[in-house]
Amino acid sequence: MEPIKIGLLGLGTVGGGTVQVLTRNLAEITRRAGRSLQIAHAAARDYDPNLPGLDQIGRIGKDAFAVVEDPQVHIVVELIGGYSPARELVLRAIENGKHVVTANKALIALHGNEIFAAAREKGVVVAFEAAVAGGIPLIKALREGLAANHIQWIAGIINGTGNFILSEMRDRGRDFEEVLAEAQALGYAEADPTFDVEGIDAAHKLTILGSLAFGIPLQFQKTFTEGIGKIQSQDVAYAAELGYRIKHLGIARRTERGIELRVHPTLIPQRRLLANVDGVMNAVLVQGDAVGPTLYYGAGAGALPTASAVVADIVDVARVLTTDAENRVPHLAFQPDELADLPVLPMEAVETAYYLRISALDRPGVMAEIAGILGAEGISIEAIQQKEPQAGESHVPLILLTHRVLEAKMNRAIQDIEALGSVRGSVVRIRMEPLAG
């Protein structure tokens, strides 16, 4: 039987890893797929000429559109990233009747609805396991392994760069800017780290997870996103004193009023497994009504871990090449005509608990003023700590943990607290989640 011909777009970190994994493990992969696989045509502007397995590629050029137009190619693997020309390339490949494998979370989060509709019309598969959490088979778990469950919520560390920064700040008491510079030097963060530290990368991934979990269309623009740039080492230390750790989480939750999709720094109890995921590792906790909590942990990025997911998708596509389109696993887990029009809640309508750090004047009555503002909004205090003032300082850090309350109420309370003459600067707010199964 003729091998399945692959067209590869991109020979960078993930593309190079895909070539290595596919050529090195070809015999084992063929046993799993039932047919041999061959990279017939690749396109890249630049690549390492010493890359292992490069000699087994049929043809290498610079024109990505030539790959998607190549009549020999059965599966197009898009690993160039970004929004454009990736969108145009993927849509053209689909129009040509080719199956697509991609690791591009931004593309799926923003244009996935359009891409999947085009794929259904042409009867082809778009596989995207590597788009979320690198080598962790999370999308397959949601689409297939947990198909019997109502997914209640998902909470995950889905960006390794942010997790590395917060881990270093906690373990070594270092400041954000210092650790970010090291993350860039180590290659964990890009020269422009905005997508990582501001939560945009995690929001792309959470958008996909929310759609898979709850059967809703992809809605990146409705995902609340907050980064970690304002977290200070003192907040990390204060959280530890109270028995918590700060993690940059993506949280998707089904409520009676709608769906929560939010990415932000979060205090979680230090005894939780998720609180003990350190460095650049990823971990996602999924709560299903039948199975309970399940945890998925592993490398969320890197050449070979991500290539592992890419090649697994290629194997899946190879298996379904002889399957009629109606019997394939749906792209977003639910049948296309069964996607629900559940509202995605604005952040103001989300209910959670809070850590607050307030720089308050060290004099009697100030705490009563602050407590009065919180009480007027129906916000009850779970714990409070007043730190010792530094020499010559008139203001002290006041640390409060609150019970759960609507974000809109907390917004009003913080605005009133910041307006007090006894309070200096902005109130530091970090949301809290118990993540109890």
Structural overview:
The protein contains 14 helices and 17 strands. It is α/β, with parallel strands linked by helices and about 425 residues long. It has 3 domains: about 5-135 and about 305-340, Rossmann fold, CATH 3.40.50.720; about 140-300, Dihydrodipicolinate Reductase, domain 2, CATH 3.30.360.10; about 350-430, Alpha-Beta Plaits (2-Layer Sandwich). Strands 7, 8, 9, 10, 11, 12, 13, 14, 15, 16 and 17 form an 11-stranded mixed sheet that branches. A hairpin with a 4-residue loop joins strand 9 and strand 10 (about 260-270). The mean pLDDT is about 95.
Annotate the secondary structure layout.
Elements: E1 4-9, H1 13-24, H2 26-33, E2 37-43, E3 60-61, H3 64-68, E4 75-78, H4 86-95, E5 99-102, H5 105-122, E6 126-127, H6 138-145, E7 151-157, H7 160-172, H8 176-185, H9 194-197, H10 200-214, E8 224-225, H11 233-241, E9 244-254, E10 259-269, E11 281-288, E12 292-299, H12 303-320, E13 351-361, H13 366-376, E14 381-386, E15 395-402, E16 405-406, H14 407-418, E17 423-432
Parallel strand pairs: 1-2, 1-4, 2-3, 4-5, 5-6, 8-10, 10-17
Antiparallel strand pairs: 7-9, 7-11, 9-10, 11-12, 13-15, 13-16, 13-17, 14-15
Helix pairs in contact: 1-12, 2-12, 4-5, 5-10, 7-8, 13-14
Question: How would you briefly describe this protein structure?
Answer:
The chain is of the alpha/beta class and 437 residues long. It has helices at 13-24, 26-33, 64-68, 86-95, 105-122, 138-145, 160-172, 176-185, 194-197, 200-214, 233-241, 303-320, 366-376, 407-418; strands spanning 4-9, 37-43, 60-61, 75-78, 99-102, 126-127, 151-157, 224-225, 244-254, 259-269, 281-288, 292-299, 351-361, 381-386, 395-402, 405-406, 423-432.
